[in-house]
Design brief:
There is one protein chain. The protein is mainly β and 123 residues long. It is 0% helix and 52% strand. The strands form two sheets. Strands 2, 4, 5, 6, 9, 10 and 11 form a seven-stranded mixed beta sheet that branches. It has a four-stranded antiparallel beta sheet with strand order 1-3-8-7, with no helix packed on it. A hairpin with a 4-residue loop joins β7 and β8.
């Protein structure tokens, strides 16, 4: 299994920026497509963004497209989520996920999750 640890959350004003990091353990980090999800109070967990194993392809939920950018540095076993123009609706606990990349699907949610990091955006 791969262990994942998120960091970088905090309290920011609307319009501000944060960069989240997710560090994975082991020597197999580059074999996983990686995703970011979030869960707001009273709502189900939702997909935010994903990135292919090599970092060559990115996918975003419509609610964050144009504002968030996912990237990865396999040499550091780290995936990032740069969040700009933050809105109060972005308030949630953010989780990273180690998933799969196949010819049939560029990203499929996996079973490995971090503990989450809280992002709170004030209006």
């Amino acid at each position: 299994q791969v262990q994942l640890v998120e960091s970088g959350g905090g309290l920011v004003q609307a319009g501000g920026s944060l960069r989240l990091s997710c560090v994975g353990s082991g020597r197999t980090f580059s074999s996983y497509a990686m995703g970011w999800f979030r869960q707001a109070p009273g709502k189900e967990r939702e997909f935010v963004a994903a990135i292919s194993r090599s970092g060559g392809s990115e996918y975003y939920a419509g609610s964050v497209k144009g504002r968030f950018t996912i990237s990865r540095d396999n040499a550091k076993n780290t995936v990032y989520l740069q969040m700009n123009s933050l809105k109060p609706d972005d308030t949630a606990v953010y989780y990273c996920n180690a998933g799969e990349e196949t010819q049939a699907s560029p990203y499929r949610e996996g079973d490995y999750w971090g503990q989450g990091t809280q992002v709170t955006v004030s209006s």
